[in-house]
Amino acid sequence: MTELLKAEHLYKQYPGFTLQDVSFSVKPGRIMGLIGKNGAGKSTTLKSILNMVRPTSGTVTMLGKDFFRCEKECKQKIGVVFGGTDFYPLKKLSSITAVTRQFYPDWDQKKYESYLTQFDLDETKQFRSLSSGMKVKYLLALALSHDAQLYILDEPTSGLDPVSRDELLHIFIRIVRDKKRAVLFSTHITSDLDRCADDITYIQNGHVLKSADKETFIRSFEHLKSPDDIKPLTLEDIMLRTERRLDDETAL
Amino acid sequence: MKLLYKELALAAHPTSFVFAFLGCLVVVPAYPYTVIFMFGCLAPYLTFLYARETNDAWYTAILPVSKRDSVKGKCLLILSIQLFQLLISIPFVFLRKFLDVTNNPVGIDATVAWYGFGLIIYSVFDLVFFPAYYKNGYKAGKAFILAAIPMALLMTVVEGVVHIPALAWLDSYAPRDLLLQLPILLAGILCYGLSLPAAYRISVRRFEKVDL
User: Is the terminal CB of chain A with fewer CB neighbours within 10 Å at N or C?
Assistant: First the structure.
């Protein structure tokens, strides 16, 4: 199975923070969750993959091509959403869409309109008048309407109500059902990943602590279980106990 | 063209379009006409400021374009605004002659030399402004101040020089004087033709190192 995305040994040096040796891959038909606490490097990882921040070193292979060499070609086949980022607040959604679709030869207007209906989006509204959840939904509608093979989403479910989150997770599952496409999304709402992720990559302090399929991932943290734990650990348990342990070690 | 369309539809500050039409000010009987070029320089400043506040760089970054294209879009937009401003002024120069308006007492008239000087002012401004902005991708104010200094100096020189009797031909519409002014226009075209591509190349090199 060829990976849709392969990040290898990504390094990015900032004053006070270093993304170090980040490597993982996303295969078709899979949903990968990128977890880690705030400031761990999830967004920096995604931005490095997309060349929005220039990695100090490392390679990104997307859809079998070197992303840094074939950026435009690769971007045609990906959908990207950064939750919490507002674009052109005074522009109407219809204006933003009219421009966006010019850049995608595979733009599917019918699909886009069906997402507008599904998400209850009114194209005549200005971007700023949308709630944060609706903004994410609009950006998702754009990302979902040009036949992308890989979806890279940064905190897409943050700010969404439980019903909308559930709706999105179902969309993610539907996207990967054909076994040709994949979703990579970062989140700190680990319960979302419990429900839909196939693979988990855990980033801690700028490096990958573990990247594996969900079952292997959970098994590899068995040592965090206490005698009182009867059920398998959830992703939230794993994150909390790992971060707490690190804090304890740092305090000592 | 897609890039220019995106810039015009989403990124350009609405005032930039107003500034683009201010070429028509050459019909005003008494006015420092080099100020028109200042409007052509304010347009990129306001547009870059507006683009920063509307997260234009982020939106562009998720489109299937590179950082090089992102810079290219902005250069195309500013090129369009500045050239449109000069072109739109031409019919108003003829209207001015048709209305038989007397010579501009403030400074230089909209002569062939004025167009040449305008292109030189744009060349210098753009060559400083674009690379200064793309060094970090957000300090539009600093880039404008840096570029506005040579712009203001050039404007002062152009307005002042026509008051020197020996150089009064720069302010004349006499066919013989217009011919004499032609090399200034050609120099302006040459400067602009070299400066904007240079500004673009330096800006791309700088912006590719910027982290969004």
Answer: C
Integer-rounded Cα Rg, in Å, for chain A is 19
Kindly state the helix (H) or strand (E) to which residue A81 belongs, with its residue range.
strand A78-82
CB A3 within 8 A of CB A30: no
Nearest CB among B6, B69, B208 relative to A99 is that of B6
d(CA B205, nearest CA chain A) in Å: 13
Tokens of A204: 């801690």
In terms of DSSP bridges, do strands A199-204 and A57-62 run parallel, antiparallel, or are they unpaired?
unpaired
In whole angstroms, what is the distance from residue B24 CA to residue A180 CA? 57
Domains in chain B: boundaries: 2-207
CA dist A93 and A73 (Å) reads 26
pLDDT beyond 90 at A108? yes
A196-237 pLDDT, tens digit per residue, is 999 999 999 999 999 999 999 999 998 888 888 888 888 888
DSSP 3-state of A200: strand
Is A72's CB within 8 Å of B59's CB? no
Q: What distances in angstroms separate CA B65 from CA A50, A65, A76, A130, one per listed residue?
A: 11, 16, 9, 27
Q: Which CATH architecture has domain A5-77+149-251?
A: 3-Layer(aba) Sandwich (3.40)
Note the pLDDT of residue A249: 67
pLDDT at B182 over 90: yes
**What crossing angle do the helices spanning B140-161 and B112-134 adopt, rounded to 10°?**
160
The pairing of strands A5-14 and A17-26 is antiparallel
Pairing between β-strand A150-154 and β-strand A78-82 as defined by DSSP bridges = parallel
Residue A242 Cα, gap to closest chain B Cα (Å): 30
Distance CA B1, CA A102 (A): 10
CA distance A204 to A86: 27
Indicate whether A252 pLDDT > 90: no
- Around Cβ B105, how many Cβ atoms within 10 Å? 9
Give the pLDDT mean for A151-175: 87
The verdict on B10 touching A (C-beta cutoff 8 Å) is: yes
Q: Report yes or no: B63 at the A interface, CB cutoff 8 Å.
A: yes
- Mean pLDDT in chain B? 95
Tens of pLDDT, residues B81-123: 999 999 999 999 999 888 888 888 888 999 999 999 999 999 9
